[in-house]
Amino acid sequence: MKGDPRKLGFSTRAVHAGQTPDPRTGAVAVPIYQTSTYVQHGLGEGAEYEYARVQNPTRSALEEQVCQLEGGHSGHAFASGMSAIATLVTLVKAGEHVVVSRNVYGGVYRYFTRIMERYDLSFSWVDTSNLAAIEAALRPETKIVYLETPTNPVMEIADIRAISKLAHSRGARVAVDNTFLSPYFQRPLELGADFVVHSTTKFLNGHSDSIGGVLISTTEEDAEWFRLVSKSAGAILSPFDSFLVMRGIKTLAVRMERHEQNARRIVDFLVAHPKVKRVLYPGLPDHPGHEIHKRQASGFGSMITIEMGSYDAAKRMLDRMRVMSFAESLGGVESLISHPASMTHASIPAERRADLGLTDGMVRLSVGIENVEDLVADLEQALA
Ligand SMILES: Cc1ncc(COP(=O)(O)O)c(C=O)c1O
């Protein structure tokens, strides 16, 4: 397309943002610039591209695409979701403090407690669905309030707008891991947050064939810092993975609609099933965060957690699944089913998992885009 897609609808931006036709050939798809360096014009003459750890046109196109979907100032793509999060945390210095959703992805818990605490950063693990608890945890040295909403896998909902207002009044900034919903359903920066991170490994790429992460900033000062960290630490996303994620994002809108449509049907089935003790899904009217979620997001996504009552009951079900694959991760076109306590959240000590309500009987579903009748039939036979 010609012109700036920034004012156009979400799906149009997903397809066109950052996708300038190749100037040499007019190629519609941004080429994979698989190069480590670039020939420069001459000594003393600056060049836009010098070395691929610092700049790569395929990566830049993806960064612009995601940035426009989240409505930020700049995007920064990394080799994994964890390296995007690690880059964000370089804003916090020794002696400073971060308030974190108590029930974040287990890898984030491991990174903060086992690595960053060694560098004298401190973390308060808070129920971020409770504004008063956040208020009580904020300190003069708090730099960032780090949220997941919904949390993984307990599905606690944080009020991004209210938390941003509170954090800003106390000199802290707010980062949201938006992996579960993607910008198609939730755009934290529009609600007042300062940073968004994603594991692009999940819904953004959407096809379970790439590991990656993005970090979106809202100011040039932060962007400059992230560019410095990125080129210095070097955990950049490869040109091929940038291409894959960009290609995945072009169909994000249609995939998310189908993901959610399937999830709603499956939630109805699970709620009515006598062997399922509890269904955690923010789309259920009796979910504690339902009203807040409805105010800040345009959909409920396709992540569902169920309580089977015991490890053995969860195992019996998981062992029998046929269409849904028993695997870590989420957000792919194929339905995945997992056991958070022994998989994604195994690095969280058992007593802490118990405090969070993350039980051994919990099973997490990432509902894909297959024919929903096949998914329901699969669950039906596994639960029989
Ligand atoms: C919500 C969430 N954030 C971050 C990550 C880390 O992303 P990655 O595995 O791409 O490093 C994950 C991984 O499962 C996740 O589920």
Explain the overall architecture:
There is one protein chain. The chain is built from 14 helices and twelve strands. With 384 residues, it is α/β, with parallel strands linked by helices. The strands form two sheets. The chain has a seven-stranded mixed β-sheet with strand order 1-7-6-5-4-2-3, with helices on both faces. Strands 8-9-12-11-10 form a five-stranded mixed β-sheet. α6 links the parallel β4 and β5. The longest helix has 21 residues. The chain starts with 9 loop residues before the first helix and ends with a helix. 48% of the residues are buried. The mean pLDDT is 97. The protein binds pyridoxal-5'-phosphate (PLP).
**Mean pLDDT, rounded to whole units?**
97
Structural class: alpha/beta
Total helical segments: 14
| Strand line-up of the largest beta sheet | 1-7-6-5-4-2-3
SSE sequence, one letter per element = HHEHEHEHEHEHEEHHHEHEHEEHEH
Main pleated sheet:
7 strands, mixed
What does the overall shape look like?
globular
How big a fraction of the residues is strand?
A: 5-15%
Alpha carbon gyration radius: 21 Å
**Distance between the amino and carboxyl termini:** 52 Å
What are the segments in which pLDDT stays under 50 over at least 5 consecutive residues? none
Give the cofactors and ligands: pyridoxal-5'-phosphate
Counted beta strands? 12
| Residue share in helix | 25-40%
Top keywords for this entry?
384 residues, alpha/beta, seven-stranded mixed β-sheet, five-stranded mixed β-sheet, 12 strands, 14% strand, globular, binds pyridoxal-5'-phosphate
